[in-house]
Amino acid sequence: MTMGMMLAILGGVFAAVFGCVGSAIGVGRVGKAAAGVVTEDPSKFGKVLILQILPGTQGLYGFLIAFLLMVQVGLMGDAPLQLTTAQGLMYFAACLPMAAGGLVSALHQANAAVAGVSIVAKRPEESGKAIIFAAMVETYAVLSLLISILAIFNITGKIAG
Description:
With 161 residues, the protein is mainly alpha-helical. Helices cover 84% and strands 0% of the residues. It contains five helices and no strands. The chain is elongated and about 60 Å long. The two termini are 22 Å apart.
C-alpha cells in the first residue's frame, strides 16, 4: 500500500470518526434532556425524539464520505489506485470539510436541540419551531458534505485524466 493510499484512507477515517463522535455526543446530550421531559409527560416522546435524531445525521454523512472515498480509490473493487503522496493528501484534504463540519455542527445542533426540548416541555404546540432552530444548523453539515463530495470527485477526474 502506498503512502498516498494510506493518507486517503486516513481522510475517510477522519470524516467517519469525527462525524460519528459529534453525533454520538450530540444525540446523547439531547437524549438526557428528552428523558427529563418524557419523565414528566410521556405524551411528548415523539416530539422530543425528532429533536434527538437531528444531531445524528452528521455520523451518517461522515460514513457516506468514507464510503465514497473507498469507492473512488478502488478499495471497493478489484484494483485499488496507486496513489502518489500528493494525490493521497488531496483525498485527505477533501475529507476534512466533513470531518470538521460534521463534528462541530453535530455539537452545536445538539445545543439547539436541547433548547428545543425545553420549548417542547413548556409549549409542545411550538415543537415545529424547536425543530426548525435545530435544523438550521444542519445546513452547515450538508454544506460540508457537499464540498467533500465535490472535492473527492474532482480529484478522481484529475487522476483519470
